[in-house]
């Protein structure tokens, strides 16, 4: 049996706006856009992608699934994402080597420290 990971679904009050935010943050391309769904991928034929799907209720609690990103320069990437509209959040992580941010709809994600050589 073979299983291929195709995408992560992100429920969103405004999938077009949030999907465009993530496309710009990641430098990914838009592969589908409608009022109800907005899909992005690293390249048109590369998986997995992120698929933003409309849901009427706003996020109310800590996300049960989040994305982790490992940049070359954590401080620079955090600054870039915050300037792009992300915000720092405290989800009880304490003093850690990663930084927890939230996108414009409050979905948490982590920017990890540079991998040790």
From TrEMBL:
Instruction: List, alphabetically, the InterPro entries matched.
Output: Glyas_Bleomycin-R_OHBP_Dase (IPR029068), Glyoxalase_6 (IPR041581), VOC_core (IPR037523)
Q: Where is the VOC domain?
A: 4-114
**SUPFAM superfamilies the UniProt entry points to:** Glyoxalase/Bleomycin resistance protein/Dihydroxybiphenyl dioxygenase
PROSITE patterns cross-referenced by the UniProt entry: VOC
In terms of Pfam families, this protein maps to: Glyoxalase_6 (PF18029)
- CDD domains in the record: VOC
Instruction: Point out the coiled-coil segments of this chain.
Output: none
- What is this protein's record name? VOC domain-containing protein
Taxonomic source organism = Actinoplanes teichomyceticus
């Amino acid at each position: 049996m073979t299983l291929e990971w195709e995408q992560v679904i992100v429920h969103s009050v405004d999938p077009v706006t949030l999907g465009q935010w993530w496309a710009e943050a990641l430098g990914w391309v838009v592969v589908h856009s409608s009022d109800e769904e907005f899909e992005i991928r690293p390249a048109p034929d590369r998986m997995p992608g992120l698929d933003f799907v409309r849901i009427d209720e706003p996020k109310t609690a800590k996300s049960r699934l989040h994305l982790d990103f490992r940049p070359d320069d954590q401080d620079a990437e955090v600054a870039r994402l915050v300037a792009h509209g992300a915000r720092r959040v405290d989800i009880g992580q304490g003093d850690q080597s990663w930084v927890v941010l939230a996108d414009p709809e409050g979905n948490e994600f982590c920017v990890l420290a540079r991998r040790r050589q």
